[in-house]
Amino acid sequence: MIRTCWLLLLLLLSSSLPAAAQIVISAPGKQAIPLAVTEFLPLPGQSARPEVARELDELLRGDFDLSGLFALLPRESYLSDASRMTLNSAEVNFEQWRLLGAQSLVKGGYAVQGDELVIEARLFDVGSRRMLTGRRYQGKLADLRRMGHTFADQVLKGLTGELGPFNTRIAFVGSHSGHKELYLMDVDGRNVKRITDHRSIVLNPDFSPIGKEILFTSYKGGNPDLYRKEIYSGREARFSYRRGLNISGRYRSDGKEVAATLSRDGNAEIYLLGMNSAIHKRLTNSWGIDVDPTWSPRGDEIAFVSDRLGNPHIFIVDVIKGEVRRLTRDGKYNATPAWSPKGDRLVFSRLEGGVFDIFTIRPDGSDERRLTFGPGSKEHPRWSPDGRFIVYSSDEKGEKAIYIMRADGSGSRQISPSGGESRHPAWSSSW
Length: 431
What we know:
- The protein is mainly beta and about 425 residues long.
- Helix content is about 10%, strand content about 40%.
- It has helices at about 15-20, 50-65, 95-100, 145-160; strands spanning about 10, 35, 40, 70, 105-115, 115-125, 130-140, 170-175, 180-185, 195, 200-205, 215-220, 225-230, 235-240, 245-250, 255-260, 270-275, 280, 290-295, 300-305, 315-320, 325, 335-340, 345-350, 355-360, 370, 380-385, 390-395, 400-405, 415, 420-425.
- Strands 1, 2, 3, 4, 5, 6 and 7 form a seven-stranded mixed beta sheet that branches. The chain has a four-stranded antiparallel beta sheet with strand order 10-9-8-31, with no helix packed on it. A four-stranded antiparallel beta sheet has the order 11-12-13-14, with no helix packed on it.
- The protein is elongated and about 70 Å long.
């Protein structure tokens, strides 16, 4: 059951789009906006809860730093306005922030009554002396981080016109229990929760387009079968359990069909399945092994890995016509492609020098870029729902863990907990 009561959006105080159009940023590194983020203060008449302020501050600064869009101004340089509860444009001393070089300003307040929490958060444009976006969140104290990530998403939307991905979830396969099970965590690696208890091998999760369901492979029944699991109810059922392989399931963007690898006829081929598991179409027919399908955002093409020409390379098949074209031509082992949400690039891993690294390429095979370097293998890349980030697994520190980096390869950081191997990440849509 979706927890709808935690967050109540009560008031949209200002539209951001006219002022946001003055700030042209779309990707990290192109223009870092000087941003001041003040510590949230108790709302008038409310008691101070320093731990609430600290957690919000750490969360927001972490999200803004990961975005790569901001240059965070040092807290020690702030002047008197930082310690004043001023949440409307007429009260903010913009001149102080202008003198510090800030272009944007985040301020906010909170109130805690028992286990109830209210957060008021604002984003101001210092140059125009106006509020770009403002939100009031009301819910349980336990939902503090969700409220904070939601506001960070709104800040990105206020400045770029595109919502951020911070209030989403990442699924991954972890061995922390002694078995390979499915886990969920926040984008910053907090709130890790195990969601399967198959006590076997679970692999390769994929979120449904609306994020309420996960498709994954499990050996629970002794065969690699596909399972569907409702995240909130916990209900799950075998989805495809035909003879041989039932692996690499991927939802179409409208959620009405799944592409998967089956070997029911003896060889691994790509099939389209209805949501009742009925086979709609066999997409490939080759002597080679065809695995790891990924849909184009429009649902008219599927990229996949095949060794039909000798070494594993990435190919693209037209879903309607069945025509297949080769995408990658370099390297001897290319694997695990994922199509970007905007459709302009595919990310994949390539084995070179004994380790995997992550690359991107345009759908026409041009403009190939290597994103990762250094020790260890980087594998199983997947995009964030807004295409700004890539999540992947890496053993660069010895133990396989989940990492996030920006789409240009910068800003990589480990997010999964230590104490067990973590791999096969998947990123949900809005939560």
